[in-house]
């Protein structure tokens, strides 16, 4: 199994609750996360939050679909794990640290196994671009979206 991924973060000029709420608003994820082409909420928990989501990911060489189970630590973190779909493995974690003075440190981690077929399609530089898009862009996209909403 070939696993890829990494971690990245951003300091955001907004309270941690605003960052947490933006990430929890899963239907709007394609607006700020470049690799996410579409999102469909399949299930909601008793609090009305997304608990299972179908995500269409632009994997540069093809579009992949994956269903993700979503769990929350209220106001602090969000975790997503592959339930089914085109990727062999996918986990995503967001963590929000309140820095005071309406500032937040948002941390993002992703680990994925593209599986045999996607690994054959996405080799060398393409896999590097895909990994950078999936790993590095989300915190910066979140920063732009949250700060724009606050203006």
Structure description:
By secondary structure, the chain is α+β, with helices and mostly antiparallel strands. The protein has one domain: Alpha-D-Glucose-1,6-Bisphosphate, Chain A, domain 4. It contains 3 helices and 7 strands, in the order E-H-E-E-E-E-E-E-H-H. A 7-stranded antiparallel β-sheet has the order 1-7-6-5-4-3-2, covered by helices on one side. Strand 2 and strand 3 form a beta hairpin. The N and C termini lie far apart (45 Å).
Q: What name is given to the CATH topology?
A: Alpha-D-Glucose-1,6-Bisphosphate, Chain A, domain 4
Overall geometry: globular
- What's the CATH H-level homologous superfamily? START domain
How are strands sequenced across the largest beta sheet? 1-7-6-5-4-3-2
Task: List the main descriptive attributes of the protein structure presented here.
single chain; 151 residues; alpha+beta; Alpha-D-Glucose-1,6-Bisphosphate, Chain A, domain 4; 7-stranded antiparallel sheet; 7 strands; 46% strand
């Amino acid at each position: 199994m070939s696993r890829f991924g990494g971690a990245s973060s951003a300091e955001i000029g907004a309270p941690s609750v605003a960052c947490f709420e933006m990430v929890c608003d899963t239907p709007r994820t394609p607006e700020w996360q470049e690799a996410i082409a579409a999102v469909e909420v399949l299930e909601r928990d008793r609090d009305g939050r997304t608990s299972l989501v179908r995500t269409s990911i632009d994997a540069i060489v093809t579009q992949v679909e994956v269903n993700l189970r979503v769990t929350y630590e209220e106001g602090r973190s969000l975790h997503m794990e592959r339930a089914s779909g085109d990727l062999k493995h996918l986990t995503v974690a967001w963590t929000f640290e309140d820095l005071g003075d309406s500032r937040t440190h948002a941390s993002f981690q992703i680990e994925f196994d593209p599986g045999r077929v996607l690994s054959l399609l996405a080799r060398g530089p393409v896999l590097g671009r895909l990994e950078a898009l999936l790993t590095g862009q989300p915190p910066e996209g979140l920063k732009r979206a949250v700060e724009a909403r606050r203006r």
